[in-house]
């Protein structure tokens, strides 16, 4: 029997977490690990205790900020990091698995929190129509290991 490696297990979990998202634009999942242990999980969406965009605004989603981004939503990697910190888990030296490459603001948080590796599935730049993945460029510039997940997973959610 072939045993899956941990990269596959954690990325498959990130894909499944993305399916929990209530965003009407994009579903993103994240898993934060240390060695072979999960320390936190997250998916994109509004802060706990507010409303779910697909239920409150099913046609348009939440309102947009001045840059066209969701005004209420937290990114999957932000949710994973915040949950870990809220529960007093150290994220320093951890690895982040995420279905969409981090944006620049998330990359700054990842770097500041001491996360040492990021593995992602899809390009944020391609999704947003940008010329480069600024978050990936930032992380690499400051010595964070960044790797694109190269295996193919079966994904049945068109928003992932």
TrEMBL record:
Where does the record place the CMP/dCMP-type deaminase domain?
A: 5-142
Statement: the UniProt record of this protein carries the keyword Hydrolase: yes
One Pfam family this sequence matches: dCMP_cyt_deam_1
Q: Which PROSITE patterns match?
A: CYT_DCMP_DEAMINASES_1, CYT_DCMP_DEAMINASES_2
Its required cofactor(s), as named, are:
Zn(2+)
- Top-level lineage group: Bacteria
Give yes or no: UniProt keyword Ribosomal protein: no
Q: Which InterPro entries match?
A: APOBEC/CMP_deaminase_Zn-bd (IPR016192), CMP_dCMP_dom (IPR002125), Cytidine_deaminase-like (IPR016193), dCMP_deaminase (IPR016473), dCMP_deaminase-rel (IPR015517), Deoxycytidylate_deaminase_dom (IPR035105)
Q: Which PANTHER family match?
A: DEOXYCYTIDYLATE DEAMINASE (PTHR11086:SF18), DEOXYCYTIDYLATE DEAMINASE-RELATED (PTHR11086)
- Name of protein: Deoxycytidylate deaminase
Which species? Answer: Negadavirga shengliensis
